[in-house]
Design a protein that fits this description.
The complex is a heterodimer of chains A (299) and B (317). With 299 residues, chain A is mainly alpha-helical. Chain A has 12 helices and 2 strands, in the order H-H-E-E-H-H-H-H-H-H-H-H-H-H. In chain A, 71% of the residues lie in helices and 1% in strands. Classes of the chains: A mainly alpha (299), B mainly alpha (317).
């Protein structure tokens, strides 16, 4: 009898322990998510509410916050930007697509060469990718400011925008080269040999045999580079003075300066519009996140 | 016979040449980028740090050339001690979230929460701050800490914190700075640790379970020892990232960072350049980060060895 009761006690103890363990696990993972959920929930609810939202309850549902899609955004009677909202979207797209295009070209060429050929300086080149991480972002901004200024490109509208695209792609390309090198490594040598034996040139083997095989890698790199261009803030904020070439990030920053404390509705609607592509792409590519080695530029 | 040898030799030389041209052609865009975007600015920044360059963008060499560095080391700039302290606090405390806490997250969402769909959703939610453009992330926190409508003030009141301006009053602003950046960094470490846990052969877990080990025992005796290298890698990488990061703080504390105790070294360098237009001095401030980071990298190379540094998610079994 006593044996049965000790056994029962042990079972109960084990059950309690497992419940407490589960609570701890879910508590640690989920409780810190509450502020995040509040914030993102607020962004959605506030974008469709006419008055300030507290605790995620809609307050005067309206579509009025979205007026910026058709009319210029005004502050105190004067328009905040000299161009329409859609021009801002176009500028952002230009930056994002330009960055993605350049990064894919640079990374797919260099990634292949580094993966397939043994040449002098290959090891230092690999090492440099890690060492580059020691250079803080602010250093580029300071030094490139001098360069842009002495080349006469600073404050020149489209010309500055193009240089921002080149700088952005340049800063991003080493880590994407690294990522694509990993994809090239996974393609078996034999396939290229077969192509070369059949009389393909090396370039053709690269283009028609290897590149199609690493299409998922190219797609992932394009999406990540596109998103990092879409989200870019500091380069545009620092270098672009011509308001016609503002992107959504800098425009939103200026809006926050103007409307904070006064009208969170417009800020939330603008922010939600700007956030949507990031979220869509993120959900589409999230399975890559667990398989790819992501080298982070930000914190 | 000799002729055909010569032919083979010429053919081989030709092939060698073609190969070299190919490698050069493929690497050129990358190398040009490295030189123009990384190499040239680094050299320029070093040269600028030896001048008192202002808005005129003239190289006025200082005497002694390293005067800016003396100014930093001897704290002739009265803000240096505070900025230094803030940076130390920022890097140290955020690292605790980005590395040990990320480790806990990685293990819990991979090993303890076994329903794959649920843990994928949780990881996705943790990834939100990283995927959110920095200005929106800043907007969300500005609302969250808003003294009138934000939830933080209301939650604070429950705990007796009245009339606290979370964005402006020390030390609350500093706590916020750490948490804001912690959320961004935690997900990166989480993914690395999570994939490392997935690399551990399942047999080890089965064996432990058969022997009657509890989950805690499995984590303590199997997972943690095996995650030693990923742990060191994440800590090393995040230290470097944090040393150079400032954009979140710039967006949220636009112009108020010095008064609210959130002016980290990189941000101070940025402000010196683009608000005070002291490009020479700001270049010296940026070079200090480079020197510290290079020192850390040298140390890491020594600890890890080069190969390990480049294979973050490797688990040795």
């Amino acid at each position: 009898m006593s044996k049965v009761s000790t056994y029962r006690e042990a079972v109960v103890k084990a059950k309690v322990r497992s419940i407490v363990g589960t609570l701890i696990v879910y508590g640690v993972v989920c409780v810190p998510l509450v502020p995040l959920l509040l914030m993102y929930g607020w962004l959605i609810v506030q974008a469709f509410s006419g008055r300030p939202v507290e605790w995620l309850l809609p307050n005067q549902p309206t579509l009025g916050n979205w007026y910026f899609l058709t009319k210029p955004i005004e502050f105190g009677g004067t328009p905040l930007f000299p161009v329409s909202f859609w021009r801002l979207v176009l500028n952002t797209l230009m930056l994002a697509l330009g960055t993605a295009g350049l990064v894919v070209v640079i990374a797919s060429l260099a990634g292949y060469a580094i993966s397939r050929f043994d040449f002098k300086g290959r090891d230092p080149l690999l090492r440099s990718v890690v060492i580059l991480h020691s250079i803080p972002g602010v250093l580029f901004l300071i030094a490139l400011m001098y360069l842009l200024n002495s080349l006469g490109i600073y404050g020149k509208g489209l010309l500055t925008m193009i240089s921002v695209i080149i700088i952005k792609a340049g800063i991003e390309s080493p880590m994407y080269t690294w990522m694509l090198k990993g994809f090239f490594d996974s393609v078996p040598w034999e396939l290229e040999w077969a192509a070369l034996v059949d009389g393909c040139s090396r370039f053709k083997a690269w283009r028609s045999v290897v590149m199609p095989l690493i299409f998922p890698g190219i797609a992932a790199v394009s999406v990540f580079a596109f998103l990092s261009g879409w989200e870019e803030f500091i380069l545009v904020y620092t270098y672009i003075t011509d308001e016609r070439y503002f992107t959504l990030s800098v425009a939103l920053d200026r809006l926050i300066g103007a409307f904070r404390f006064i009208n969170y509705g417009v800020l939330a609607a603008f922010g939600l519009f700007y956030l949507i592509p990031a979220i869509i792409f993120f959900i589409l590519t999230q399975k890559y996140l667990t398989t790819l080695r992501i080298i982070a530029y930000k914190g | 016979m000799r002729v055909s040898f010569r032919r083979i030799r010429t053919a081989l030389a030709k092939e060698e040449f073609r190969r070299a041209v190919f490698v050069v052609a493929f690497l050129t865009p990358f190398l040009v980028t490295l030189i123009v975007i990384y190499g040239l600015p680094s050299l320029l920044c070093f040269l600028m740090s030896l001048t008192d360059m202002g808005l005129n963008f003239q190289f006025n060499w200082l005497t002694p050339p390293w005067y800016n560095y003396i100014k930093i080391i001897q704290c002739e700039d009265p803000y240096i001690p505070e900025v230094f302290y803030t940076t130390l606090l920022y890097v140290g405390a955020t690292l605790l979230i980005n590395s040990p806490f990320a480790l806990v997250l990685g293990i819990f969402t991979t090993y303890n929460i076994r329903r794959e769909n649920l843990s994928a959703v949780l990881r996705l939610l943790w990834f939100l701050p990283r995927m959110t453009p920095v200005v929106i992330y800043g907007l969300l926190w500005q609302w969250f800490a808003d003294p009138y409508v934000g939830p933080l003030a209301k939650i604070g009141q429950i705990f007796g914190l009245r009339d606290v301006y979370w964005l402006l009053d020390k030390p609350y602003s500093q706590i916020l700075m750490i948490v804001v950046n912690g959320y961004v960094g935690a997900s990166w470490g989480m993914i690395i640790f999570s994939s490392s846990v997935k690399c551990i052969p399942l047999e080890l877990f089965y064996a432990a379970k058969v022997d009657g080990a509890s989950d805690w025992a499995v984590i303590k005796n199997i997972i943690l020892p095996l995650l030693k290298w990923p742990m060191l890698f994440v800590t090393a990488w995040q230290t470097l990232s944090l040393l150079g990061s400032y954009v979140q703080i710039l967006v949220i504390w636009d112009g108020h960072a010095l008064t609210s105790g959130t002016e980290v070294w990189s941000l101070y360098s940025y402000d010196m350049a683009f608000r005070s237009y002291e490009f020479g001095y700001s270049a010296a401030l940026a070079m200090v980060i480079v020197v510290v980071a290079l020192g850390l990298i040298a140390l890491y190379f020594k600890i890890f060895g080069f190969r390990r540094m480049l294979e973050p998610s490797r688990v040795e079994v």
